[in-house]
Design goal:
single chain; 278 residues; alpha/beta; 4-stranded parallel beta sheet; two-stranded antiparallel ribbon; 38% helix
Length: 278
């Protein structure tokens, strides 16, 4: 009798539960977490975070043969850090958002990236011998955030650039300026269908700088770079969704470093932040 009563009350509770109590990722009707928008505690607890990267350069969670390859010597960014390992569950989450248009995933993915940025800031601060992170003024921050652009064809196909949305979300959360500094100069087939060598080859010449006057204006509006002869080193953070071979980010970093040097006489340190590391 008690089991019947329990089942009945659970049914009534489920029927009366607000729509917001349905987990975005597993579909169960339950209490959602406060820290991770839209998902339940059970789903939050199995997120494959990368808490302690094994590779300093690319941020991979396990042993990394990629950064031992000869082409890795031509790296134009300081480091990449990723929020999660790109396992089956994370692949499905990103697919739901990126390819199937489930926009409710955006706040969750941005919040996960924000967590990775905080960890990255503390790591850089520690490497630089900074003060304890409790002193907010001592925490490293990029001067601006930019993102990997998509081609016009891809933008029409999807209706949005997920990297841009991630960058804009991070900028709002961390009060960091956002700037669109790159354009995709050629349309390439989806990287997921290519081998490592094909990915690297396809990225050659794939990105260009925005018009020079726009680039100069974006940098000049930053605090510390608004006067001629600025001596500071420009700190730029590039955001993307997945790090696989690093060829996309490396090409973008090269273009930005060259532009800062040639257009404004500035040295630039390029850092990369991606949602997942494959």
């Amino acid at each position: 009798m008690s089991s019947i009563y329990s089942s009945f009350t659970r049914l009534i509770r489920d029927l009366l539960a607000p729509p917001g109590d349905i987990c975005l990722t597993c579909g169960s009707r339950t209490k959602l977490t406060r820290e991770w928008p839209g998902i339940c505690r059970r789903c939050a607890e199995v997120i494959p975070w990368i808490g302690s990267p094994r590779c300093f350069h690319c941020g991979r969670a396990i042993g990394c043969p990629d950064c031992m390859r000869p082409e890795a010597l031509q790296r134009f960014f300081v480091m990449n850090r990723s929020a999660v390992r790109y396992d089956g569950m994370m692949r499905e989450w990103l697919a739901q958002y990126k390819y199937r248009g489930h926009e409710r995933y955006a706040p969750l993915l941005v919040k996960m990236l924000s967590q990775a940025l905080i960890r990255m800031q503390l790591e850089i601060n520690s490497l630089k011998g900074g003060l304890q992170h409790s002193k907010q003024s001592a925490v490293w921050k990029p001067d601006l955030i930019t993102f990997v652009p998509v081609s016009k064809a891809r933008l029409i196909e999807r209706g949005f650039n997920q990297a841009q949305i991630f960058a804009e979300g991070l900028g709002k959360l961390h009060h960091i300026p956002i700037a669109s500094l790159l354009v995709r100069s050629m349309h390439t087939e989806k990287q997921s269908f290519k081998t490592r060598a094909e990915r690297i080859e396809s990225m050659k010449g794939a990105f260009e700088l925005i018009p020079e006057e726009h680039f100069v204006r974006e940098i000049a509006r930053l605090k510390g770079f608004d006067q001629p002869g600025a001596l500071r080193t420009l700190q730029i953070l590039i955001v993307d969704d997945i790090y696989t071979t690093g060829s996309t980010l490396n090409t973008c970093a090269y273009v930005l470093r060259q532009a800062a040097k040639l257009k404004m006489g500035l040295e630039a340190n390029i850092y990369c932040l991606t949602w997942a590391r494959s």
